[in-house]
Write a structure and sequence with these properties.
By secondary structure, this protein is an alpha+beta fold. The chain contains five helices and eight strands, in the order E-E-E-H-E-E-E-H-H-E-H-E-H. The strands form two sheets. A six-stranded antiparallel beta sheet has the order 4-5-6-7-3-8, sandwiched between helices. A two-stranded antiparallel sheet has the order 1-2. A hairpin with a 2-residue loop joins strand 5 (67-75) and strand 6. Helix 1 packs across helix 4. The model has no long low-confidence stretch (mean pLDDT 90).
């Protein structure tokens, strides 16, 4: 991937396959990466640290329509790099359909309302370390209170479910 001087993705991001990533459906239309908030939430709720690459700047209060980044994550004695991308939800009809199908199988459970409010897709790729991708999904779900569609498309879950999945993958210290 190539990035400009503000750290924004050059070129067009296309949705990743749902089976390769966690997909978050954010009610916030913004593509901004709030490094301070992400770092604070990672430390406070997950005893983890995150570092964004490339660093993002938003000159003249602008923001990209689509963007991508790497998150370097340290947690539970492990470190990993996790790929993240974001794009407008209207660019991801098949992912929205997969999420709607998962919600229907659950009988709604309130996720139908949350999904109806979604405006932006954030995807966390399952590269290498599955605990790291799970942690980032839980972290970003906590930032936006966004419902999450896991790679297996079995259901939708929120912050609590994302955290439980991460904790199930992470041995206690």
């Amino acid at each position: 991937m190539k990035f400009d001087e503000s750290g924004w993705l050059i070129g067009r991001a296309t949705p990743w396959l749902v089976s390769d990533c966690y997909s978050l459906f954010s009610p916030d239309v913004s593509s901004r990466v709030d490094c301070g908030r992400w770092t604070a939430q990672a430390a406070r709720f997950f005893d983890a640290s995150v570092e964004v690459t490339p660093q993002k700047r938003y000159p003249e209060n602008g923001q990209p329509i689509r963007d991508a980044l790497q998150l370097h994550v340290s947690f539970a004695g492990a470190t990993a790099d996790v790929s993240v991308q974001t794009l407008p939800l209207e660019d991801a009809h098949s992912l929205l359909a997969a999420a709607e199908s998962a919600v229907a199988r659950m009988g709604g459970a309130g996720f139908d309302v949350l999904l109806g409010r979604a405006r932006r897709l954030w995807q966390i790729r399952m590269d290498g370390e599955p605990r790291a991708a799970s942690l980032v999904a839980a972290l970003l779900a906590s930032v936006w209170l966004a419902p999450v569609l896991p790679p297996d498309q079995s259901c939708m879950f929120g912050v609590k479910g994302a955290r439980q999945r991460f904790e199930a993958l992470t041995p206690r210290r």
